[in-house]
Amino acid sequence: MSFDVSVVGRWSAPHVFDVTPDSVSRYESVVGGPSPLYAVVPAMDLVFATAAAAVRDDPALRARVVHGQQDLLIHRPLPVGEKVTLRAAVVGLHGKEKGTTATIKVETVDAEGDPLNEQYVTEFYRGVPSEWAIGRPAPSTGLPRDSPPAEPLRVESVALPVDLPRRYADASGDHNPIHLDEEYARAAGLPGVIVHGLAVLAIAVSSVAAEAGGRALTRVSARFTRPVAPGSVLTTKVWPHDGSYRFEAEDDAGTTVLGAGLAVPGS
């Protein structure tokens, strides 16, 4: 098993996605309403293709990957009913004792080429250590580093449906079998099928958006710290943070599943 370091910094060909009202509606019906996280949907196939190229399309390596972090910077909402164009590149490969991190950057523009959003997808290949230190990791500027205050502004719990992985896969285009196939998930070293991290994040962010009073969010970032089982109860806690909000989420066992969350509202 090996990584192709030559992909670092190599941008993909342009990928065009049609932001149809039906696609937006299906996503919103799964995550509980309008969400800035819909911005990940147009990028889904492109991210998978870019990540696969980094591991030479090795299925054994791809079976060991989990989503480590997502950082979404929003310049403008996606234009519903119009086409957008995306490109992606692996911008960093960094080895650790317990695995290797691949950082993928995605840029999305409108029909005139004006920026809509950029996002950093951090993937972690469990049990695949390396000494790579190539390119750059996702930006950490502005992200929370210390422990949150004792008392949150908001605490909100949501029961995650047992069929959430299947429904989210259909709405988002993320059909990774660790979310859909019990046998495959266990073979990959997981306790069983797990909920998509981005689904968990979208549901948690709805609590943050409620605290923000409907102001549009211009940045959403969080680390995926533990897998979430279908049927769990997700509890999101929100705190003030330098004019923005930080958040974390726990499962029904009290285990933190989203950490170092940051949500920045627009003016």
What is the secondary structure topology, with strand pairs?
Elements lengths: L14 E4 L2 H11 L12 H11 L4 H4 L2 E10 L8 E14 L2 E11 L5 E12 L6 E3 L18 E6 L4 H9 L9 H6 L9 H15 L5 E8 L8 E9 L2 E7 L5 E10 L2
Short description, anyone?
The protein has two domains: 1-139, Thiol Ester Dehydrase, Chain A (Roll), CATH 3.10.129; 142-267, Hotdog Thioesterase (Thiol Ester Dehydrase, Chain A), CATH 3.10.129.10. 21% of the residues lie in helices and 35% in strands.
Number of strands: 11
* Percent range for β-strand residues: 35-45%
> What sort of overall outline do the alpha carbons produce when their principal axes are compared?
globular
Query: What helical percentage do the residues reach?
Result: 10-25%
CATH topology of the largest domain: Thiol Ester Dehydrase, Chain A
As for the number of domains, it is 2
Average predicted local confidence, pLDDT: 94
Distance between the termini: 47 Å
How is this structure best described in words?
The chain is an alpha+beta fold. The chain has two domains: 1-139, Thiol Ester Dehydrase, Chain A; 142-267, Thiol Ester Dehydrase, Chain A (Roll). It has six helices and eleven strands. The protein has helices at 21-31, 44-54, 59-62, 164-172, 182-187, 197-211, and strands at residues 15-18, 65-74, 83-96, 99-109, 115-126, 133-135, 154-159, 217-224, 233-241, 244-250, 256-265. Strands 1, 2, 3, 4, 5, 6, 7, 8, 9, 10 and 11 form an eleven-stranded antiparallel β-sheet that branches. The longest helix has 15 residues, at 197-211. Residues 36-127 form the Peroxisomal multifunctional enzyme type 2-like N-terminal domain. Residues 158-247 form the MaoC-like domain. It comes from Virgisporangium aliadipatigenens.
